[in-house]
Specification:
The chain is of the alpha/beta class and about 450 residues long. It has a single domain (about 1-375), classed as Rossmann fold. It is about 40% helix and about 10% strand. The chain has helices at about 1-10, 20-25, 50-60, 70-75, 85-105, 115-120, 125-135, 140-145, 155-170, 185-195, 235-245, 255-275, 325-330, 340-360, 365-375, and strands at about 15, 35-40, 65-70, 110-115, 175-180, 205-210, 305-310, 320. It has a six-stranded mixed sheet, with helices on both faces. It is globular and about 90 Å long. It starts with a helix and ends in a 66-residue tail after the last helix.
Length: about 450
């Protein structure tokens, strides 16, 4: 049983550090505890499906999962999210993650959501952070955050604090292993080195592969052309996939092909296993799922198909694959054309996003939060309406004279005398009485 759980916990990962720690916990019959964190900065993109889908495996293996909304980290990372926006973005991320988990059939009741500021501002945490600062060199701190913290010509001190705080989170969240992308590796090895120097236990670290951007390179929230937003409508999804780099026969740096491998096929396998009752310790998986929960296989596809590509009969008919290796081989041999692959991938992504967009449209609070978290930079500021304020007594054109009588009426065709200019003369040249109320 322990071996089965370990296989579930570690399958489809790119790298595992400290696997023996997890094996020892499982051998003792204890429940492993994990944390996965995300800093609420830019809009989350569909690359998040990779770690979120993997969390289903953790729950199947009876792992206790904590989701950290790292709001303090978001602020520290070279002001990617200004302090006044962090709170709104934190709530946006939570709303979105809950919707994605539900769309994947992952029971959110088994997940613990924690905001970093709820403990990272405490006296104990701050003191440990200071202790860490006495041990860590500037070189080590900068090196650890090189692939995660935004690199600028004149880096801020805040970016150097980022890796140390992520290491301390393992202790304060009480986890046995931290899970994240392979881009976190340097921070993970940093934590393995420095936590024991504070007298804390060394944790294991599990890393999922990163999904390349649509144009090659890393999929990034800061580059709208490299990624697809969770709330992108179908026409935008199709346009972005149509423009994605996907050269015929080229399987390297191919974001479209990589997304099939990292997201669509794992989700298909997850759904097939659920249909077969293979959910391990997570009997609630799929019970509250929203949206289409069938695999990405066309109707009539052979049993075990995890991904289908529709083609007209005149072009050889549809293609059905039971593994990514089969699909990749056909693409490399140019048996699968990029246009057909792109169409199938766009269809799959739209199916994944439909229930998430529907949840957003039905949640007025979420829509308000989205506008506060990501205000339109091109929006024109609202013009303030002028409010009429009546003049104080004795002022203005209708002011009364000191004795309470109205000022003398001007002869027809002439301007009325001013009550605010005691030295002025009337149009007839006669001296005008002064108005004490205006002096």
């Amino acid at each position: 049983m322990a071996d089965v759980k370990f296989e579930l916990i570690t399958r489809r990962l790119q790298e595992v550090l400290g696997g023996d720690i997890i094996k020892a916990i499982l051998a003792e019959g204890r429940t492993p505890k994990c944390y996965w964190g995300t800093a609420p900065t830019g809009r989350p993109h569909i690359g998040y499906f990779v770690p979120l889908t993997k969390i289903a495996d953790f729950l199947r293996a009876d792992v206790e999962v904590t989701v950290l909304l790292a709001d303090v980290h978001a602020f520290l990372d070279n002001l990617k999210a200004p302090l006044e926006l962090v709170a709104h973005r934190t709530q946006y991320y939570k709303k979105l993650l809950l919707a994605v988990f539900t769309s994947l059939g992952i029971p959110t009741s088994k997940l613990r959501f924690v905001e970093g500021s709820s403990y990272q501002l405490s006296r104990e945490y701050s003191l440990d952070n200071y202790k860490l600062c006495t041990l860590v060199t500037e070189h080590d701190a900068k090196k650890a955050g090189a692939e995660v913290v935004k690199q600028v010509e004149s880096p801020l001190l805040s970016g150097l604090l980022y890796p140390g705080m992520q290491a301390l989170d393992e202790q304060y969240l009480g986890c046995d292993f931290q899970f994240g992308g392979v881009d976190q590796r340097k921070i993970f090895t940093f934590a393995e080195l420095y936590l024991p120097r504070l007298g804390y236990a060394k944790r294991a670290h599990l890393m999922n592969p990163m999904v390349p951007g649509l144009g090659g390179g890393k999929m990034s929230s800061s580059d709208p052309n490299s990624k697809i937003d969770f709330l992108d409508p179908p026409e935008v999804v199709r346009r972005k996939i149509k423009n994605a780099f996907c050269e015929e026969g080229n399987t390297a740096e191919n974001g479209v092909l990589a997304f099939v491998k990292a997201v669509l096929i794992p989700v298909s396998e997850l759904r097939i296993e659920r249909q077969q009752g293979k959910t391990g310790a997570d009997a609630e998986e799929g019970a509250s799922a929203i949206g289409d929960q069938t695999p990405f296989a066309l109707e009539g596809a052979p049993d075990g198909t995890v991904f289908s590509v529709f083609r007209k009969e005149e072009y050889g008919g549809s293609l059905h694959y039971k593994s990514f290796d089969e699909l990749e081989a056909d693409f490399a041999a140019k048996k699968l054309h990029p246009k057909d692959l792109k169409t199938a991938v766009a269809d799959g992504i739209i199916r994944l996003l439909d229930p998430i967009r529907a949840a957003f449209e039905q949640d007025e609070e979420w829509k308000k939060t989205e506008k506060l978290a990501y205000p339109d930079p091109n929006a024109k500021p609202e013009k303030k309406k002028k409010v009429y304020h009546p003049p104080p007594p004795g002022k203005g054109k209708n002011a009364k004279l000191a004795d309470g009588a109205a000022g003398p009426a001007a002869p027809e065709g002439q301007a009325a005398p001013s009550a605010h200019a005691p030295d002025a003369t009337s149009t007839t040249g006669a001296p005008e009485e002064s108005n004490p109320a205006a002096s």
